[in-house]
């Protein structure tokens, strides 16, 4: 959306919002009675102590996992199939890469959470806005800690983590029955897209958190490097030896199945330890490629456990 058009839309919509302010929901009014100061990337922000209507980019899973009400998120995060119908009850698609301001205002948020520093000024005209430094929220525990503090939901975080650990224990027991002990095995995550091969760290979806934080697999050395860096890298078949591990997880869409067949016939692939030992686990791209929040990770554990058992029997 062009900047001038964005400004005009925001200004016009804000006038309408101001005119209707006396008819605001009692829920939002109650939530704004008390505010707290939260130190964010965009400075100290006065936010509702108990926000009731939250619009959030990139992290709807984290917010919903803490039991908070997400009223809107970006187009990329919105399709998260791991979130329940109740978690998505009030959630709408607000567009991407930037929120559609008209849709955002219509959702009447009392808190906006964004990763887009260029839009903070526009969002601040609508509701208190927190700019998130996503590079510091690497991994499920870090992100849960951050959002539990922001949303005043420490008890909900503790409850979620207890359930997460219970699920992890159950899935580890299923693997143990097949003589698979995650803590004694390394992994690497790969993805095929067209003629490209990508490797991922544990903080870029693709089951990373389910496999490491959840099931307890160790990262290969190269995977760990990606986790500490940008999170992913384009690789080629010849460089895959650097990502060799006890288990390789490869996701791809149906349209890229032929590429996987070609990879299987590549001598460099055939020479990998995981390939020789029958420890290659293929995953459906459409199920795992993008969604890596806490609830997604919790539900993915069973998905990955079953895939591991099926692939290695």
What is the gist of this entry?
This protein has 313 residues and is of the alpha/beta class.
What topology emerges from the helices and strands here?
Blueprint (H helix, E strand, L loop, with lengths): L2 H17 L6 H6 L3 E6 L2 E6 L5 E3 L3 H6 L4 E4 L18 E2 L7 H6 L4 E4 L5 H5 L4 E3 L8 H12 L2 H23 L9 E8 L2 E5 L7 H7 L3 E2 L1 H8 L3 E4 L11 E6 L4 H8 L2 H4 L2 H4 L3 E5 H4 L5 H19 L1
Parallel strand pairs: 3-4, 3-6, 4-5, 6-7, 8-10, 8-12, 12-13
Antiparallel strand pairs: 1-2, 8-9, 9-11
Helix pairs in contact: 6-7, 7-14, 8-14
> What average pLDDT do the residues reach?
91
What's the oligomerization state? single chain
CATH fold description of the largest domain = Rossmann fold
Approximate helicity band: 40-55%
Q: Treating each run of at least 4 consecutive H or I residues as one helix, how many helices? A: 14
- The domain count comes to 2
DSSP strand content: 15-25%
Family: Belongs to the bacterial solute-binding protein 8 family.
Organism: Lactococcus taiwanensis
Keywords: Signal, Transport
InterPro entries: ABC_transptr_periplasmic_BD, Bact_iron-sidero_bind
């Amino acid at each position: 959306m062009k900047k001038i058009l964005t400004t005009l839309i925001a200004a016009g919509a804000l006038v309408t919002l101001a005119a209707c302010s006396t008819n605001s929901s009692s829920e939002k009014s109650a939530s704004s009675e008390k505010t707290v100061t939260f130190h964010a990337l965009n400075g100290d922000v006065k936010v509702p102590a108990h926000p009731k209507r939250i619009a959030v980019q990139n992290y709807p899973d984290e917010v919903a996992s803490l039991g908070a009400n997400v009223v809107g998120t970006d187009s990329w995060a919105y399709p998260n199939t791991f979130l329940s119908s109740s978690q998505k009850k009030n959630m709408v698609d607000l567009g991407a890469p930037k929120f559609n301001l008209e849709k955002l205002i219509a959702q009447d948020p009392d808190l906006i959470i964004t990763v887009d520093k260029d839009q903070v000024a526009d969002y601040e005209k609508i509701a208190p806005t927190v700019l998130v430094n996503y590079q510091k929220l690497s991994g499920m525990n870090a992100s849960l800690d951050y959002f539990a503090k922001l949303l005043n939901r420490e008890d909900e975080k503790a409850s979620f983590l207890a359930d997460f650990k219970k699920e992890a224990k159950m899935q580890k027991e299923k693997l143990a029955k097949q003589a698979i002990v995650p803590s004694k095995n390394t992994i690497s995550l790969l993805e095929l897209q067209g003629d490209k091969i990508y490797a991922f760290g544990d903080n870029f979806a693709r089951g990373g958190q389910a496999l490491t934080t959840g099931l307890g697999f160790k990262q290969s050395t190269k995977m760990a490097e990606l986790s500490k860096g940008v999170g992913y890298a384009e690789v080629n078949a010849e460089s895959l030896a650097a990502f060799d591990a006890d288990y390789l997880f490869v996701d791809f869409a149906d349209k890229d199945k032929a590429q996987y067949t070609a990879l299987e016939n590549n001598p460099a692939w055939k020479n990998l330890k995981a390939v020789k030992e029958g420890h290659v686990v293929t995953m459906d791209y459409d199920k795992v490629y993008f969604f890596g929040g806490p609830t997604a990770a919790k539900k993915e554990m069973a998905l990955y456990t079953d895939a591991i058992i099926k692939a290695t029997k």
